[in-house]
Amino acid sequence: TQRIKWSRSLRSSLYRNEKFELDTGKVVRGSYRPFCAQYVYYDALLNHERSLLPSVFPTPTHRNIGFYSLGVGATADFSLLSTAFVPDVQMVGAGQNGVFSPRFTWGDVEATDDGLFGKGVAVVNGESSIYGQVGEVVDGYVREDNITDEIKKIYRDALGTDITGDDIFHFVYGKLHDPEYRTRYAADLKKMLPHIETPSSRAEFDKFTAAGQKLMDLHVHYEDVEPWPLDVQVKGDESDRETWRVLKMKWAKRRDPETGKNIDDVTKLIYNKQVTISGIPAEADEYMLGSRSAIAWLIDRYQVKKDKASGIVNDPNDWADEVGNPRYIVDLIGRVTRVAMETVRIVDSLNEK
């Protein structure tokens, strides 16, 4: 029992004598923390209070995309991050719950049609999306558009009939990255979900839509971007697996010219005793998610750590071994650096007139 977190819902299942049977088909990838995916056993019995998640990701075969936002009641500044995986409720920091806004909802077809529809059948031909066809049926669930017809009509009446649900989705993601918007509504974002006005011009809409789509593509596909050209200095044998094994990364130190104290050098990372990574642009540290920068999240999560209560060891090197790339974590640092730099560049461009 040391390896189980006895939540309120799990205790209730125990009292009801509910039986658990392992189903490997329920193992899915989840977004636990920024740029840190972990496997999740996605099951109503073992997941505490899943809320609306079953309608967002009903099974591992039902794909979706959305963005997690932190703001209401949080101590950290407003932030958001898109993902195509099952999100943790505290994705940008322990103790701070956020909200997930998905592009689609998967509705249970069998509840309304007695199971007449099969895989791939369209209930109603809906609007095409780059993320999936609205109205398609996959294994008893129909893909429903979360951008309602009412919202589309408002935007189309104001800005043009060619605007799509994807355009509005990307516009919102871009607008929520706007520094001017975050500053103006900083107090409101800590009290309520974001409210976004319909833009006054098509040019403004197109600007934020293009930025939002680029940002979403970067953030969702962070493992596929070209790594930033970093200087990886290796003392050991690069062909030896142990050379790339990480225990706990840390920033190098530099002397602050004003105070004379040693502070973190965010341009240089001590990976382990044999590997040092330098050439990280200082601007990359500007991309914040909750209370940490993107690269600081890698330092926090990609370390060997033993949970005191359960005795379970979380070793990020296991994933590098599983994908057959000893340099996976080093390469990920380069990729997230690229994501951070591109994000800062795109966000800075939003206020350009």
TrEMBL record:
Which residues are in the Type ISP restriction-modification enzyme LLaBIII C-terminal specificity domain? 2-332
**What's the protein here called?**
Damage-inducible protein
Organism of origin: Corynebacterium evansiae
The lineage, from the top, is:
Bacteria, Bacillati, Actinomycetota, Actinomycetes, Mycobacteriales
